[in-house]
């Protein structure tokens, strides 16, 4: 069994325990996004990209405070230590962390970051936001809540904001944070769909016919 197939089998059981915002369907969509971006990035190491996509949320800080699952699976794959380190670096650069993100230094990191962020915006991004908010018991919206501009990683992780607030603190920012040309192109329509959704949501909340 090659590394990608073996990794997929190992990670699936982990993602199947997560809520709908970070389940294996999320991984499948990010994988498709990465495959699309890879067509425009021929110099990228495809195996590194594919493995990083599969592994990027197994030790997500929203669900666990250790890297045990990530390290356990990496150790089971037939990889050089250099490639394991590269995959760790790619995964570490994916997280937004309240705007305190690490630099995506390699083309592989840029592809995986954009692929993951594309799944955070648009129609799927909207659905995922409310799925996560529902799983965490968060409000749909809170007009008294102020959008945070500057925050630490801890503040971003620990404060339970309403789902709509998350759009203004992260999702609406992602279009301009894409780091591949293809990612930027793909983000445009998804961004506009979110803007339209929020506009319609406000009209319905305000009782505007």
From TrEMBL:
<dbReference type="GO" id="GO:0016787">
    <property type="term" value="F:hydrolase activity"/>
</dbReference>
<protein>
    <submittedName>
        <fullName>Phosphohydrolase</fullName>
    </submittedName>
</protein>
<feature type="domain" description="HD/PDEase">
    <location>
        <begin position="19"/>
        <end position="130"/>
    </location>
</feature>
<dbReference type="Pfam" id="PF01966">
    <property type="entry name" value="HD"/>
</dbReference>
<dbReference type="InterPro" id="IPR006674">
    <property type="entry name" value="HD_domain"/>
</dbReference>
<keyword id="KW-0378">Hydrolase</keyword>
<dbReference type="InterPro" id="IPR003607">
    <property type="entry name" value="HD/PDEase_dom"/>
</dbReference>
